[in-house]
Protein: ABC-type quaternary amine transporter
Organism: Labedella endophytica
Amino acid sequence: MIAFEGVSKRFPDGSLAVDDFTLTIPSRSTTVLVGSSGSGKTTLLRMINRMVDPTGGRITIDGDDVAKLDPVKLRRRIGYVMQNSGLLPHRTVIDNVANVPILDGVKKSEAHAHALELLDTVGLDRSLAKRYPAQLSGGQQQRVGVARGLAVDPNILLMDEPFGAVDPLVRDELQQELLRIQRELSKTIVFVTHDIDEAFLLGDQVVILRTGGIVAQAGTPAEILANPADEFVASFVGAERGRRALHIDAEHGDRVLVDGTGRVAGVLTDGPGGMAGTAAGSAPE
């Protein structure tokens, strides 16, 4: 479990990025921090592995104050996946994935064998192992980034807008892959995004932030959609003016779900377990 207790961050120029932030992140689930630019979401994420140190309050992992832990050792035990993958361009895929385990003293042969297994885990063909990042597509690079983040089998995986730089189709594939990986591995994932649809898709717990790291509302996607805390949250999730309210529109014999803007959101079908919704696309932000 990760706990933020009255955490604040003021930078040397005097700007306040986070002010008195308190939150508990449950183990083996996905918590998504979502907000616009300036909401402090990335600063909060980077405080977990001490890439940024708070100026007030404290952060604990399973009761241990991270400020008292060696930052290098802490980072090596926490997986980190960033936007644009952040791969080392002069190293092959297999060497990128195996890098941290080797730094931790794992034999190269063992680290490479595990790296190949991780390529399987993230849905990449092992034939890509000897290629360099520039020889991969954007989606493939992001999958390698996820594999690298999992290389030390961390309990915690931090993901800083990892799918923000790829096209919508690839982004959807990567989101589904992450859901599959989480079902299989049950990590404690902290995911940062500015996209509320991505937050609702991936998050067991969603935290909507105002500027300065102020929690506007935290809860499950269903709780937030059903009961937005205020007008800011309602606007952010697209619930104002009924944009998230769906109704059935019969068209060509199908039962089509339409949102408040008239955009098709899915089709109702009778599945094995009864009536089910088949999504046709994300609801608008």
Notes: The longest strand covers residues 16-25. The first helix runs from residue 41 to 48. The domain at 2-241 is CATH 3.40.50.300 (Rossmann fold). Residues 50 and 99 are 20 Å apart (CA to CA).
